[in-house]
Amino acid sequence: MRQQEAETASWNLDQIVTELRASRELTHNIRHQGQIRELPSRKALLGIVEGLCAALFPTHYGRADLNEANIDYFVGHTLNQTLPLLQDQVRKGLLFASDTDDSDERSLAQRASRITSDFASRLPIIRGLLYTDLQAAYQGDPAATSTSEILLCYPGMTAVIYYRIAHALHELGSTLVARLTSDIAHSSTGIDIHPAADIGSHFFIDHGTGVVIGETTVIGQRVRLYQAVTLGAKRFTEGENGVLVKGEPRHPIVEDDVVIYAGATILGRITIGRGSVIGGNVWLTQSVPAGSHVMQAQMRTSTTIQPKSLSERIGQWSI
Amino acid sequence: MRQQEAETASWNLDQIVTELRASRELTHNIRHQGQIRELPSRKALLGIVEGLCAALFPTHYGRADLNEANIDYFVGHTLNQTLPLLQDQVRKGLLFASDTDDSDERSLAQRASRITSDFASRLPIIRGLLYTDLQAAYQGDPAATSTSEILLCYPGMTAVIYYRIAHALHELGSTLVARLTSDIAHSSTGIDIHPAADIGSHFFIDHGTGVVIGETTVIGQRVRLYQAVTLGAKRFTEGENGVLVKGEPRHPIVEDDVVIYAGATILGRITIGRGSVIGGNVWLTQSVPAGSHVMQAQMRTSTTIQPKSLSERIGQWSI
Amino acid sequence: MRQQEAETASWNLDQIVTELRASRELTHNIRHQGQIRELPSRKALLGIVEGLCAALFPTHYGRADLNEANIDYFVGHTLNQTLPLLQDQVRKGLLFASDTDDSDERSLAQRASRITSDFASRLPIIRGLLYTDLQAAYQGDPAATSTSEILLCYPGMTAVIYYRIAHALHELGSTLVARLTSDIAHSSTGIDIHPAADIGSHFFIDHGTGVVIGETTVIGQRVRLYQAVTLGAKRFTEGENGVLVKGEPRHPIVEDDVVIYAGATILGRITIGRGSVIGGNVWLTQSVPAGSHVMQAQMRTSTTIQPKSLSERIGQWSI
Amino acid sequence: MRQQEAETASWNLDQIVTELRASRELTHNIRHQGQIRELPSRKALLGIVEGLCAALFPTHYGRADLNEANIDYFVGHTLNQTLPLLQDQVRKGLLFASDTDDSDERSLAQRASRITSDFASRLPIIRGLLYTDLQAAYQGDPAATSTSEILLCYPGMTAVIYYRIAHALHELGSTLVARLTSDIAHSSTGIDIHPAADIGSHFFIDHGTGVVIGETTVIGQRVRLYQAVTLGAKRFTEGENGVLVKGEPRHPIVEDDVVIYAGATILGRITIGRGSVIGGNVWLTQSVPAGSHVMQAQMRTSTTIQPKSLSERIGQWSI
Amino acid sequence: MRQQEAETASWNLDQIVTELRASRELTHNIRHQGQIRELPSRKALLGIVEGLCAALFPTHYGRADLNEANIDYFVGHTLNQTLPLLQDQVRKGLLFASDTDDSDERSLAQRASRITSDFASRLPIIRGLLYTDLQAAYQGDPAATSTSEILLCYPGMTAVIYYRIAHALHELGSTLVARLTSDIAHSSTGIDIHPAADIGSHFFIDHGTGVVIGETTVIGQRVRLYQAVTLGAKRFTEGENGVLVKGEPRHPIVEDDVVIYAGATILGRITIGRGSVIGGNVWLTQSVPAGSHVMQAQMRTSTTIQPKSLSERIGQWSI
Amino acid sequence: MRQQEAETASWNLDQIVTELRASRELTHNIRHQGQIRELPSRKALLGIVEGLCAALFPTHYGRADLNEANIDYFVGHTLNQTLPLLQDQVRKGLLFASDTDDSDERSLAQRASRITSDFASRLPIIRGLLYTDLQAAYQGDPAATSTSEILLCYPGMTAVIYYRIAHALHELGSTLVARLTSDIAHSSTGIDIHPAADIGSHFFIDHGTGVVIGETTVIGQRVRLYQAVTLGAKRFTEGENGVLVKGEPRHPIVEDDVVIYAGATILGRITIGRGSVIGGNVWLTQSVPAGSHVMQAQMRTSTTIQPKSLSERIGQWSI
């Protein structure tokens, strides 16, 4: 053990610390104007969103033994634990994003309080929307046996819950916290929905891995997506000074009752007309009218004889 | 602080609790027939599957210091901790899925006991199958240096372990728990295998993110898949009353010794004949005979000059 | 309860333990030459990489309240906790990979000490590279409002941090630990970068789910990738004895300033010339000269009338 | 490491397990009639009592940030978490203490439910009594600056809270759980109060280490004790068959307004009359009338010269 | 289970919550002037004192593998984690003890900052004093084999460390936090030292259970106590208005080089002269000159015959 | 917050770290010969003893649901987890106590292995002894309703379990670990038994707070003690050089069937003859023959009138 400890000290700790300090301060300084700003915490936010889920669907995400006599105590207590934590994260997010000096901290704190309070009052509306998403999933997937199963097992449902929470926070002005909320869902589901996207009721994503929905996307009611669908931008607009114009609409508008199958890539501020069906793996950069069916071009297929050796067969396009 | 606490109370807790209660009870009630049913727990199930993995591969997923003298104590103890927990989850899943009243709880508990007992007795067989999967991975990926490395580092192996456990539970009638098990693997690997799919020995998925294998898929022996492969349904059958027919075969049959490369999409109850090779990104909705090689159509390629400005280059199809 | 316990014992524990022992020892033995070798731990490594991240970016991944007076204590202490744990994992990885007998353990421990020490001394360089990646992300995504937001919310940044750590470990000879580090990032981001790949500065992956970068890939400076891009192998070389040749260059070379859009699949030891742009969903197996623009072939588009029934519309290619 | 593992196996695990089995089953069997009975859990009970304390004094033992708007949610939720756990411990305690066979489990569960329900309805009364104890401590100790300080820092207060909870459980018939509750307080405060003791309002123990209050002790109102006071039994009554008579009154009766100073030992069914003061270290086995002052006999004191050597001085009566 | 849940609801939650509210607000209100004040946290303070111990004796209470190259990083980091937490507790303690309104919060925060800063600067002095206590323990107990053993195993040493920390906090004005610190030590060691007591260097308590040292006690250098020693008050002084005078000297002065054996009770503002030895179980309420030896009066001893029955023998003074 | 952070930095961290370093290295160095030695860990040892208790009494301290089919797996697994951890602590203890240089580490490790192995083989014997202690408690306390209640609720039983484990470790040469084990029990029970004391079967301590049993004490069979009993030394022997002679018998011999009541202090190498009864609070420094009854001298009792004022009454000997 002493031998090992001697080896443990084989690195030059002082030198590494000094070089990392130089990297931080001189060559590769990423600190925000030299000030310390406490960032929102991914871990804290995960706990907060779990708390909100428990308040929204107490018997599914909270405790299984709730009944008429105690469920309101549970919901009230859970909100009471969660909302102050959310307010603190919102405050940090505002502080981080601001360019102001100390004198404004108090007003940022008040703004965080207002945002959280407004968000809290929207929770019943959010629950209502999620209820429609749940209905859409139940009707859209013949394999689903109950809404509870969907709440429990469907990554698409998880992603939509996180999106609706993040979207409300984004609208109220807590953009960094909203973004972080989205990324937590992205990490656990593989579904990446920008919190600024505008998505109507009865929304359902099946399987979902690889879905990307961009910032200015607009999605109507009763839309259904499958895995690996991209709703992206095609081209950024450059301003007169050569700087990219931010926030300009650059992602698709998907109207009501559209279905988009797995792997479809839809780019640019185009419109997918009401009731259209976009086939799997389709690449689409032009608007299509209502009621369209879009399918991929046919594949070239060649039947070949059995390969002669194992290695030849293994060798094709593997990675 | 007092100031802050005053702000903390800026939301109207009573009102939000009341509105959420109204949402739960009146407008958006998703409770199952008004009864409380304890759902299976994702978190509990994660622990259970880790326990089963430790019992199946004790030196890899259990404890590294096991030896001849103590390994059976470890395996026995681990099963002894894990199986009652599994039985409890199975019971909750059965209870949830049933439409019966209180008098049947005892028979459901007995059924959960039988399912768990049968599942337990299959563990050696499951281990045998996983051993063939391990061999397939070792032979199929030239980068693999040992079976231990595969058990430790390959998401495809993780997904197959979870699938084989979930499949056994599904066959024995614990469908909700099986489904939840699948989704746990989906979340950590990006690989989505329905527990009802029927997959032969020596199965290997490389990289794996985005793979989807549907409910009625049949896969033979020695099949190998790469990332983003979809084995999906093309069309649902509608019954006379307009209701979708459930459980009907609608996903592909993949015969022995087939290799399917990244991004291929194979849809419908078609058969991929023995020994075929399906190329990357291929879109396939028709059966192919044994020994087929299927490749994607050629791309249009255009060589262009350097873009004039950075923004122009950045702007293409980004999201 | 006693009733329940009686049911709990419904499986035959002794028999299952015995059969699993038989499976381990006789029929499906995967133990390494009968010896016990302590494997590196995924969980331990996760904590180690989090520690390294905290040392590299202390105010983002460490503690928010660090200031000039205490930040070096934090960095030094964090390294001091983390590096011995890393050394232990490196030692286990070397021990596992070796074929040697007991007498070599001491030399492996010394080698682990050297590797860890060399790795530690590279940390400032790694930080410098990650700084360029951060700049690339900030410039490459108009939606990014600050480098802190990128460190906090971008899975592509997470994947690159893990890659640069894993790559250094791989170069120093700790290949198994490097591989495990990669897979941890893969699991949380859906981005799969082999630690042996060689990637230049200013590298940025946007969204990222489904990206696969193979072992012998070479990527220049200022390269940007989107989700679901594959940089893979097309064919393995077979040696005279029919055994696959390992480590031979078989993945693409991507030169400086290349952008590759979502879903593109690029296979084989081909070269994507400097400044090229590869469009989304492109399938490419041939080299292209500098400044190329490669786009996918046009889709067949057909406008159709509204489907008659819901089931017909739902039924298309769903899974 | 392998060397070390070899050493790890130096004990004969099988033999020790076998001998311990023999000890359990043959020579030193302490199992209750061969049946398995789940015992109440010390750890669970600790959490339960902390929950009860939080419900009784929410701003002191619960959360500091409670206010008019949320405190009832906190109290209701806390009770709702705690009472079912208590009921489960009560049930286990009843089951353990019973001699009945399986058919009675249901009635024991119902009895546990009634006990817990009755206990819950007494909580406001318990709080009222504890309020008087708090007042007594505040008035009895001039060093106390507030009741909050007493709740926070006084082991005597902790012991009395645990006692009043344990006493209520004892009276309702949950004797084993009551006993375990007492011992938890004993372990953390050094104060040992039997849950069957009958103690009036305004009770205060200062410092408290070493206090023992026996099973049939009766204590009036406004009594104050100091550390190391024993209220014990002097002699047990033997029945005709030579068996000790249980539950017979054998501990002191301490009337209202008595003060007993540190180290006093009071034994037997004697009565300390109203308003008496018992001095420190007094040994008392006879009743004293109201208003008595009892003091210890004088010490023999001898003044001596300085000891000649250190060891001589150290050597006196040390241990 | 449903049956059980029905039973779970057998208490009337609403009624209990309402009655507890009435108890809090009307009949037994202990809230401080109706304001909410966040109290110092016992649990937080336990972590803080452990952090201070680790900073003071890093290789004993911190990490065993510290060496010249990294120990300062450990100490600096540990202080950096611990001191802000202490400051927060000190602030809460000041806020709680104050009668001021909101406008003073800022000045209390500044005062907490000053107290913590002053306390931090005293840490080297505290360590120096504890070093003398360690020497005293090593010399005073022939069974001690090393100072490390004393730091690790001696409750008396633990109590003295906590005392010296609490005493410094008390002197600086953080009385509530000091008191809470004392009680933490009391709970784990059975030794109760008031933080206001004034104790010189080279202080040693052996065994220690039951020791009580009162608020105005003054103890010189090189004093040694054994278990169950009380240094208490005999009488409080009553002011003209009948209110007890606080803080007046009422506990003993113990001069240098005194030894007090187990169970001795010394009461009142008396002086135990330099170098005196007080025997076990002595009761002392008068000053003794330097060099005194005080012993307990002789016991009456009577040899009796064997008791006739077991119960008779058991029955003597048992409890 | 920034304001607060500025205040947080109000201490001079560098200076404190420097002064603590000076204190460690120059003025108050307690490091063992400048070498780093990893000390046994109190926390680790607590877990180890809990593991041993679970192996000894699996249904009481292990898991409640054990049955014939699985109990041996539990015991074997628990020992298998616990014994290597114990061996590691034993090794650290030996290393710490040794004066040897690096070359002896291997032999110390082998000695630790032997000690642990011998200890393991004694576990059945230890269980046998504890069984007699359990019987003694059951018979000695009429309040005890079952042996399970004693295992669960009696601090005296806890102390004896820890003592018998510590004593075995002490005898085998692991003195520091034995000492630490004793102190863990002391902290939770207030009972301080030196691991070197020699205690026969059927030993019972009731209540127990404040009991101290010294290093060379010898206790026969069927002995019963009550709280606050001291079996201590009266005088140390000084060697020719003035150094205290260690290990010399200096504590009492208590023969079979002796009962010692609360608060009795028995000092020096005296013998309490077989079957004697020592009364409460007795001070005894001379041997007594078999069958003796020793009681305290009578108290002086004076009846007084009621005190005139509350403060007068409160003021007597309070602290």
Find the CATH superfamily of the largest domain in chain A: serine acetyltransferase, domain 1
Please give the CATH class of the largest domain in chain A: Mainly Alpha
Strand content of chain A: 5-15%
Q: Say what oligomer this is.
A: homohexamer
Structure description:
Six copies of one chain form a homohexamer. In chain A, the strands form three sheets. A five-stranded parallel β-sheet of chain A has the order 1-4-7-10-13. Chain A folds into two domains: 35-191, serine acetyltransferase, domain 1 (Orthogonal Bundle), CATH 1.10.3130; 210-319, 3 Solenoid (UDP N-Acetylglucosamine Acyltransferase, domain 1), CATH 2.160.10. The first copy, chain A, contains ten helices and 15 strands. Mean pLDDT of chain A is 84; it is low at 1-8 and 299-319. Chain A has helices spanning 2-8, 13-27, 42-56, 58-62, 71-97, 105-140, 147-153, 155-172, 175-189, 310-315; strands at residues 192-193, 198-199, 204-205, 212-213, 218-219, 224-225, 230-232, 253-254, 259-260, 265-267, 271-272, 277-278, 283-284, 293-294, 301-302. The interface between B and C is large, with 88 and 94 residues.
Task: List the SSEs and their pairings.
Six copies of one chain form a homohexamer.
Chain A: H1 2-8, H2 13-27, H3 42-56, H4 58-62, H5 71-97, H6 105-140, H7 147-153, H8 155-172, H9 175-189, E1 192-193, E2 198-199, E3 204-205, E4 212-213, E5 218-219, E6 224-225, E7 230-232, E8 253-254, E9 259-260, E10 265-267, E11 271-272, E12 277-278, E13 283-284, E14 293-294, E15 301-302, H10 310-315
Catalytic activity (chains A, B, C, D, E, F): L-serine + acetyl-CoA = O-acetyl-L-serine + CoA
InterPro entries (chains A, B, C, D, E, F): Hexapep, LbH_SAT, Ser_AcTrfase_N_sf, Serine_acetyltransferase, Trimer_LpxA-like_sf
GO biological process, one term (chains A, B, C, D, E, F): amino acid biosynthetic process
